[in-house]
Structure formats: structure tokens, C-alpha cells
Amino acid sequence: xxxxxxxxxxxxxxxxxxxxxxxxxxxxxxxxxxxxxxxxxxxxxxxxxxxxxxxxxxxxxxxxxxxxxxxxxxxxxxxxxxxxxxxxxxxxxxxxxxxxxxxxxxxxxxxxxxxxxxxxxxxxxxxxxxxxxxxxxxxxxxxxxxxxxxxxxxxxxxxxxxxxxxxxxxxxxxxxxxxxxxxxxxxxxxxxxxxxxxxxxxxxxxxxxxxxxxxxxxxxxxxxxxxxxxxxxxxxxxxxxxxxxxxxxxxxxxxxxxxxxxxxxxxxxxxxxxxxxxxxxxxxxxxxxxxxxxxxxxxxxxxxxxxxxxxxxxxxxxxxxxxxxxxxxxxxxxxxxxxxxxxxxxxxxxxxxxxxxxxxxxxxx
Length: 365
Ligand SMILES: NC(=O)c1ccc[n+]([C@@H]2O[C@H](COP(=O)([O-])OP(=O)(O)OC[C@H]3O[C@@H](n4cnc5c(N)ncnc54)[C@H](O)[C@@H]3O)[C@@H](O)[C@H]2O)c1
Known about the structure:
The protein is about 45% helix and about 15% strand. The chain is α/β, with parallel strands linked by helices. It folds into two domains: about 10-85, no CATH class; about 100-285 and about 325-355, 3-Layer(aba) Sandwich (Rossmann fold). The strands form two sheets. The chain has a seven-stranded parallel sheet, with helices on both faces.
């Protein structure tokens, strides 16, 4: 498919390509796009290019930049716009990477975003709760420095919303190296009574939402690979142990999560040619998270009220029952999850896998 110089596909190709071509070693730059910027003497102007296949455009840009010896701060692409170049953070386990985390306004997504920022990543927090995502991003900027995070509106079930959010990521940071597809919802009930609209809602977020995010992110990540053959990037889906074994009275959730692993395996087979590794993490229950521990609506309170755990008289009894189900006798924590996230990013020889983090509760066959 041809890329036209004056549409958004050009920005989504040129910015990630510049990030990688101008980067030092394997650390890409940060790029901020501006449609019309005031002329600057130190700007480097690329020759105008014709509409054409992405590989051809990337080749032309690489050839034009070959003659440049000093670091560039501003690159102008006639007919397309201005690309401002900046250095990313240098310290940390994922220093220099740009990560997009979906469902990052609260819960596990927020904690992943916080941990990635602490480890040197620049982070885009995307959520249907745009205000929550923006507030969380502001706090990350206060903690780690201006420009280290951005909050974005994204409804993962909506094609246009997902595209707009990834376009904004490219205009703000120049692309992405890591997508954490975390947004997820749960409505548990018997198959005999679950309203079809609830089944559709859970499936739309957990299954369709993952597909849409990968569909919009993959071409941007692939542009980096066109620029440099060694460049790799990562898609990590936050799945669940319910993606590996069935979940009683929770079919919509488990079905969508099982489907997510099918998507991961299929994306992995296709996208490895673009240097994109695709893996899922399947955590056990986060028993300390509000989902479980909230005194009013947490699952411990709900299960106590509904008598789901026979003989349980207190919330503590319900909690103990769930801890007893784990060979390691405790719930999953974000620290456990982050070890898996860092492993998947750092390793160079695995794709299409579903990595359990369940304290031994679920084992692979
Ligand atoms: N909490 C657990 O015990 C547990 C266990 C295993 C896996 N998980 C998985 O971890 C992920 C996060 O779970 P959590 O417990 O943090 O949930 P949470 O409800 O605390 O947070 C989910 C976030 O996703 C956002 N979101 C919901 N619908 C969205 C949409 N359409 N578009 C964009 N954002 C949307 C919400 O606004 C919220 O910020 C989910 O995928 C879940 O399945 C959770």
C-alpha cells in the first residue's frame, strides 16, 4: 500500500523511522510532530518525496540522513510537517523505550505504567477514563520529569478512538516500542442468566479491544524495523489464568481471554517479520487489588454475601480460601507481574507465548 506525503499514514511512518535512524546504538530518540512550525536555521530539510511504498520512503529518508554528521534537533519534511528530536532518559531497565499502556487510569495498568516510568520508559497512559489517565500522567511527570508521560482518551472497543489515540502517541513521542494491552473488564454470572449485552460488553473490551490495539500499533512499530534491521519491539497482552483454564460462572471473561491467546499466537506468527514479539502474561488473582479487597464491592465481600464459599463467615475466611487454592499460598502482586514484563521485553528468542504468573495455581500442559 502506498503512503501519501500529506496524510496521517506519512507521519506514522516518518516519525518512528526518524526515531530509530537518529537514535544512538539501539536507543531510539523521542520525536514531537508539529504540522507548521516556525522556520529554524538549524533545521534539516529532507527532499520532498513522491507517494510510494513505505519501504521506498524509508530508504530515501535513510539515504538523505547518511550525509549528516552532527546531531539533529529539527527535521522538516516538505508537505508533511516538522519533527522535533529529543533525547530519551538514559537510566533504567527500559530506558529509551516508549510504552503505551491501555486501561492505565487505575488498577494494574496504572501500576505497570508507574513501574515502567520508574525504569526509564516514556509512557502513554490510554483509558476510556481520559481524565483519570491524564491525571495519572501529570503525576508521573511530576515524579519523573516533564514529557515523561501523556494521558490519552482511548476506548479500545472503538476503531476510530484507538486509531486517534495511536496517532496522538506518534505526534507526541514519535512512535512506540512496547504496547501493554491491559484494558479488561469482568461480568461474572451463570451462562443460564448472563444478559447477552453483558457477554458482548466483556468480549468487546477483552477480545475485540486487543485486536484493534494491535491492528493500529503494529504498522507504527513495523516502521522502526524498516529503518533498522536489528530494531525489535514488544506487544504484551495482560491476559489471566482464566485464559488457560475455564472459570466457573465466568464464561464471557474466560472465553475472551482464551481467544486473546489465539490472537497472541496468530499475531506472533505474522508480526515477527516486522521484528515485533507478541506474548501474553497470565496472572493469577491480585488478591490485594481493589477488585478483590474493596470493603463494599470487592469480590471477597460479594462472595461472602452470595455464599459462594461454603462455611465462610467473614471476608477473611473467603480470602483464606482463595489463598489456599494457590500452591504458594498468596495472591499475585504487581512486582510478580513486572518481572514477567521485563523478561518478555529483554529476551530475544520467544514469541507467541502465554506466560503464567500464578504461584503454581495454573500449570501449562
Ligand atoms: N485484578 C485481577 O485479579 C486480575 C487477574 C488477572 C488478570 N487481570 C487482568 O488485568 C487487567 C487489568 O485489570 P484490573 O484489575 O486492573 O482492572 P480495573 O477495573 O481496576 O482497571 C481496568 C481499567 O481499564 C479501563 N477500561 C475499561 N474499559 C475500557 C475500554 N473500553 N477502553 C479503554 N480502557 C478501558 C478502565 O477505565 C480501568 O481504568 C485486565 O485485563 C484483567 O483481565 C486482572
